Amino acid sequence: NIQTMIEIQEYIRSQREEEIPLDAIRAGAKDQFDYSHHDYIDSQLTMIDIQEYIRKLRDENVQFDDISTRAKRKFDENYHDYIDGQLANIQTMIEIQEYIRSQREEEIPLDAIRAGAKDQFDYSHHDYIDSQLTMIDIQEYIRKLRDENVQFDDISTRAKRKFDENYHDYIDGQLANIQTMIE
User: Fold this and answer.
1) pLDDT, tens digit, 9 for 90 and up, residues 145-168
2) Which of 43, 44, 117, 168 is spaced 20 to 30 Å from 141 by Cα?
3) Which residues, 6 or more positions from 72, have their beta carbon under 8 angstroms from its beta carbon?
4) What is the pTM of this model?
5) How confident is the model at residue 44 (pLDDT cuts 50, 70, 90)?
């Protein structure tokens, strides 16, 4: 049963990577998996739908209270706690970003910011804190190498050697942005 749930999640993930609409994924998953798993399929896809709906409203700069109201109006009451959880997570991420920004303005070292943020925010957000601060670290490292007139290819090589491979695409994106600004 757990194995089937994992297979369903992998199926959904692979379909999402191909940008297949949720309704088509739902139909395909229900064709592929036994009827006893259809409620699980529905709940997984509804949660994705909720995440996308919240993201769309946030992109439209809708206020948090209005997002909550609209989402709860749109989705079944069984998902209202999930909606609250998603919004609480987003709110915490915003608070983390504001905490980091205020500490950076006071020129506090990244390691001290990391320690302070981890003291202030729940363990479930520590990976997010690490990723935010690693991206800042990458930006500073690239800036330092550029100030030393290091060639682009060398900056890329050095940064990828210094930072975990999970950040290599981020490094490429940062360098592409700089290249575009130069042009």
Assistant:
1) 999 999 989 999 999 999 999 999
2) 117
3) 80, 83
4) 0.75
5) very high
3-state secondary structure the chain: CHHHHHHHHHHHHHHHHCCCCHHHHHHHHHHHCCHHHHHHHHHHHHHHHHHHHHHHHHHCCCCHHHHHHHHHHHCCHHHHHHHHHHHHHHHHHHHHHHHHHHHHHCCCCHHHHHHHHHHHCCHHHHHHHHHHHHHHHHHHHHHHHHHCCCCHHHHHHHHHHHCCHHHHHHHHHHHHHHHHHHC
pLDDT at 183 over 90: no
Q: Which residue has the tokens 């009827």?
A: 35
103 backbone dihedrals φ, ψ, rounded to 5°: -70, -35
Contact 160, 128 (CB under 8 A): no
pLDDT in tens, 48-79: 999 999 999 999 999 989 999 999 999 999 99
Distance (Å, rounded) from C-alpha 62 to C-alpha 55?
10
Q: Looking up tokens 């970003």, which residue turns up?
A: 97
Torsion (CA) 175, 93, 71, 58 in degrees, nearest 10: -40
Dist. CA 134–CA 114, nearest whole Å: 10
Which residue matches tokens 């609409």?
Answer: 21
